[in-house]
Amino acid sequence: LKRLAAFVPRPVPGEAGDDAREAEIAPMVTTLLTLAILPFLSRPLQRVLTFVNVGGTLAKGADTLVHEGIRVDVLDALAVGLAAANGQVYTANVTDLLLDLGAYLEKRTQRRSDRLLRQLLRPQPAMAWVERDGDLVQVDGDQVREGELVTIGPGEMIPVDGRVVDGVALVNQASVTGEDVPVRKEAPRRVIAGSVLIEGRLRVQATQVGEDTTTARVARFIADSLNRQSDTQRLADRLADQRVYWTLGTGGAVYALTRDLTRLQAVFLVDYSCALKLGTPVAFKSGMQRAAGAGVLMKGGEAIEHLAGVDTVVLDKIGTLTHSDLAVTDVVVLAPDRGCNERDLLALVASVEEHASHPVARAVVDAARDRDLEHISHGEVDYLVAHGLSADVGSGQILIGSRHYLEEHCGIDFADHEETIERLQDQGKTLLFVGNEDGPLGLIALRDTLRAEAAETLARLRALGIHRLVMLTGDRRTKAEAMAAELGLDAAHAELRPEEKAGLIEQLQRDGAKVAFVGDGVNDGPALAAAEVGIAMPRGADIARATADILLLDDRLGAVADARAIAAGTMRMIRSNFNAAVGINTGLLGAALLGRLSPVASALLHNGTTIAILLRALHGVQAPAASVPALPAALPAPAEGQSASMSAT
Predict the structure, then answer these.
(1) Per-residue pLDDT for 384 more than 60?
(2) Which residue blocks in 190-271 are alpha helix, DSSP H?
(3) pTM score > 0.70 for this model?
(4) pLDDT tens digits for 240-251?
């Protein structure tokens, strides 16, 4: 027992402190002292001291009976009280000791499962050097104000989410993403609180501080998820409560037949409730902790339960099956007679697009920066969601966006350039259309790349019991069908408007499918909410992550298969623990009914079974080998460049 108790660590900040621990240990110490004193007392005094010692158990049973009805505490109180009343003082005190020890270890094991999760979500404290009134002052990281400039040197932890405004550095984000590979950071890239600067120096403008940082938001996410109760957990609680009545009825029947109080005490001390009620939430929390170590954040046991039950996975194409980073491949000038060349066109479009945050805009701006193109002055930018941008440049207006936007909304006809447009689209490229009041100006072609692990991940999902794999995209049908054939998908739905995605999810559900949807864009929110399980990629928009049941913490599609494996393994463990608890306790109950089990042995074996099941649940399922091996010290946040996707075709 000492070795078992040593397995469970001491409390940490946020858990029960020393006073609570002493309160849990005190009844056991009192009982041990009582057992040591009993041999030196007369028989009447032994009974008095025993009733005083077990009074806490009797009072707890009475209180439970009055306020909650018949629960396991009532049966324990009956068993201990009957032994004490019958003069079995040693039996009563030893049984009470075993009950207290079992309760103590159960609480400690539960706290360990919470502790493992809270370790993940507790951001490590960091100091920050902030520029204030022309001086560099050091303050607590949570005292940095939004918009302030923070200087970070080698070996220092980044205290805020922000954008690099000056400097170049290598940053280790292992504590945030679980990936122990330093990444280069320079203006205007994003940095995340909790990562560590390895080499170089940065000046960062704080964009999210204190409770708004990524680690703090994810901390609240998991803290809330600890209180979510799944259907499985509710079922376990209900069955556990039902078995209390079964034990009570069985005890009454055996006493009516045998008039044997010892046998009745042994029956009452066989308790299904603890193993059933405690094993399930501990297993869920352990599954959440394992998933976090594999780069997956789950919103409680309900997300695990639902993911284990899905048979269909629907994946958005952009940012999910393909990398969300686009690259400019072609700059096509459609009106060379107006004195515009490729460099001028790209510089003009990038100067306007730098005010947007979607992947297409980032790709254009990066292409212009790589070519050292100068910024072109322009007027205020008008942004029409999912269509395009417009801005005054010189004496006219430039219009940038989808073909539908420029032709239907702006009256700019690209029909004369159909051959060029079709050639680029047949190559699988996304097109950004550019025009002004005089007509078409040009095209900028971009292309995303299929994730290297896409085919392997889809094969793993099939091996893990997924029967149907479906892709959704706004791309042209021929392009979508070619990718579906390459990946071996069961279906591909193309040329979709954003609002149609949720409708397709609902149609699959009406056909009897249990659906998980994987997406990342602002337009994916309805689909993520409609599916049984919504899974958001880390580069997704804020609304996608808020809507999702599961967040991927690093930009790795294989984490979807890891999440399914952990969810399925956790549910298998819960079922096997449930069967073990019922089977073993039923065997103990049978032995108690036949008089083969004393009350002390009954309490010892029952509590031993409960602790064994809890420790097995706490150990949990192992994270898949393909996942990130190291458990992150703090919870990650979305990867760099989070934003909504803009339809550009």
Answers:
(1) yes
(2) 214-225, 231-258, 261-268
(3) no
(4) 566 667 667 777
Q: Is 432 helix (H, G, I), strand (E, B) or coil?
A: strand
To the nearest 10 degrees (0 to 180), the angle between helices 55-67 and 43-53 is 50
**Coil, helix or strand at residue 1:** coil
Mean residue pLDDT of the chain comes to 77
Confidence of residue 237 (pLDDT cuts 50, 70, 90): low
Instruction: State whether the Cα torsion 503-505-508-512 is positive or negative.
Output: negative
Rounded Cα distance, 274 and 283, in Å: 14
Count of CB atoms situated within 10 Å of the CB of 629: 11
Q: Is the per-residue pLDDT at 332 higher than 90? A: yes
Query: Is residue 213 very low, low, confident or very high in pLDDT (cuts 50, 70, 90)?
Result: low
What does the block give as tokens for 515? 């659906």
Secondary structure letter of residue 417 according to DSSP: G
Res 336 pLDDT > 80:
yes
Give the type of residue at 231. Answer: D
User: Percent of the chain scored above 90 by pLDDT?
Assistant: 14
Q: H/E element holding 80?
A: helix 72-85
Nearest in space to 617 (alpha carbons), one of 565, 564, 581: 581
Task: Give the pairing of strands 296-298 and 161-172.
Answer: unpaired
pLDDT tens-digit map of 532-565: 898 888 765 555 566 678 888 778 899 999 999 9
In 3D space, the residue among 256, 259, 143, 152 whose CA is nearest the CA of residue 196 turns out to be: 152
User: φ and ψ at 539, to 5 degrees?
Assistant: -90, 10
Q: Which of 7-21, 157-171, 307-321, 595-609 has the lowest mean pLDDT?
A: 7-21
Long-range contacts for 217-220 (Cβ within 8 Å, ≥24 apart)?
Answer: 217/637, 218/121, 218/297, 218/551, 218/635, 218/636, 218/637, 219/121, 219/122, 219/123, 219/635
Cis amide bond preceding 281, omega within 30: no
Instruction: Name all contacts of 362-365 with Cβ < 8 Å and 24+ positions apart.
Output: 362/325, 362/326, 362/641, 362/643, 363/325, 363/326, 363/327, 363/328, 363/446, 364/328, 364/432, 364/444, 364/446
Of all helices (H) and strands (E), which one includes residue 186?
strand 183-186
Q: How open is the CA angle 37-40-45, to the nearest 5 degrees? A: 80
Average pLDDT over residues 290-313: 85
- Position 315, amino acid: L
Asked if pLDDT for residue 483 goes beyond 50, the answer is: yes
329, two tokens: 């491949």
User: Which residues are catalytically annotated?
Assistant: 316
Measured between alpha carbons, how far is 596 from 589 in angstroms, rounded to an integer?
10
Distance, first Cα to last Cα, the chain: 67
